[in-house]
Structures are given as structure tokens and as C-alpha cells.
């Protein structure tokens, strides 16, 4: 599965700890992140992550581009609900695209944990069908 990690600055420690806790699970998947989030996770785990630009410089939009094509399977996006972000429109656009495509997205660690448990159980198998059959394949 393609999994994206994104965290705002005051949530960086939380996402790193989360990645450490589920490192074995994540190691079996294709990982993506915004710039600084990925740097922090890779600095504290053995995980290999494809890093996009930093969020304020367009990283959310780059991940959003994959979401728009229904390529991303799970997004863990620990937002800071108590601090305004300069790139708020990009954040809203990314979350909107997740809803357009029906992609599982966690915006807090409690939900992230439930989704990762579901991933471990095999509950994301339906996403393989999404990748197998692109729009237009089925009449
Ligand atoms: O701002 C972000 C998401 O909106 C995260 O970006 P960084 O991972 O580069 O800090």
C-alpha cells in the first residue's frame, strides 16, 4: 500500500513515535511524506520514505496530486488544530481530495492507530481492486 505521513511542527514528535511503534508494519509498504516530516521519521527509524517538498512549499499539494489519481491508500496527517498554517488552503485541498476519492485519512493519532490495526488485519485489501481497475476499465 502507498502510505503518506504528514505532521505539523508541534505534531512531529507524535508522528515519529507513531512510526517507531509501527515500524515493522510500515516497512512492508511504500512510504511517502512531506519534507520535514519524512526527514524526522527517517532520522529515527530504518524506514525508507519518498519525501516531497515541505508542506508550506507545496508538499501537501504533491501528495494531493497522487490522491487525485486515487494512487494513495492511506494518509496519516497529524494536523495542529491550535495553530494557523500559512498554507491552510493546500491542507484543505488535500483533505477534500481524500473525500473525493474515499481515501482513508487519519488527522489524529487515535484514528491513525485504528487504521494501522485495520491495515495489519488486511482490511485495506479493497484498495488493490482500486489499483487493478482504473476508471473506464469496467463498462
Ligand atoms: O506543513 C506540513 C503539512 O501541511 C508538513 O510539512 P513538513 O513535513 O515539511 O513540515
Automatic annotation (TrEMBL):
Pfam families: MGS. It comes from the Bacteria. Keywords: Lyase. InterPro entries: Methylgl_synth (IPR004363), Methylglyoxal_synth_AS (IPR018148), MGS-like_dom (IPR011607), MGS-like_dom_sf (IPR036914). Residues 1-139 form the MGS-like domain. PANTHER family: METHYLGLYOXAL SYNTHASE. HAMAP family: Methylglyoxal_synth. This is Methylglyoxal synthase.
Amino acid at each position: 500500500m502507498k502510505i503518506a505521513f504528514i505532521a505539523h511542527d508541534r505534531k512531529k514528535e507524535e508522528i515519529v513515535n507513531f512510526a517507531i511503534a509501527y515500524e515493522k508494519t510500515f516497512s512492508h509498504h511504500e512510504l511517502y511524506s512531506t519534507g520535514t516530516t519524512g526527514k524526522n521519521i527517517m532520522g529515527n527509524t530504518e524506514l525508507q520514505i519518498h519525501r516531497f517538498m515541505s508542506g508550506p512549499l507545496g508538499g501537501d499539494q504533491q501528495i494531493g496530486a497522487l490522491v487525485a489519481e486515487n494512487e494513495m491508500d492511506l494518509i496519516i496527517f497529524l494536523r495542529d488544530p491550535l495553530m494557523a498554517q500559512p498554507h491552510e488552503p493546500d491542507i484543505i485541498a488535500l483533505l477534500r481530495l481524500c473525500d473525493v476519492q474515499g481515501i482513508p485519512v487519519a488527522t489524529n493519532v487515535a484514528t491513525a492507530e485504528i487504521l494501522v490495526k485495520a491495515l495489519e488485519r488486511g482490511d485495506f485489501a479493497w484498495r488493490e481492486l482500486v489499483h487493478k481497475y482504473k476508471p473506464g476499465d469496467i463498462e
